[in-house]
Amino acid sequence: MTLAHFLDGLRCAVCGCLDVLWLDPVRGLVECRECGHKALCVPDAGEVV
Ligand SMILES: [Zn+2]
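Above: the input record for the complex with zinc ion. Below: its predicted structure, written as tokens.
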């Protein structure tokens, strides 16, 4: 069981690499494994944090 979930078909907005983004559901953020860019994401619509 892995906590990180890779996001296929998504491109990093910073370095432009494809298929390098993975979702960390614990922290609720997406991170690029190439350049280390992090972005907050909303896991589920309707779930208020
Ligand atoms: Zn990147």
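Notes for the reader.
The two ends are 25 Å apart (CA to CA).
The chain has a mean pLDDT of 82.
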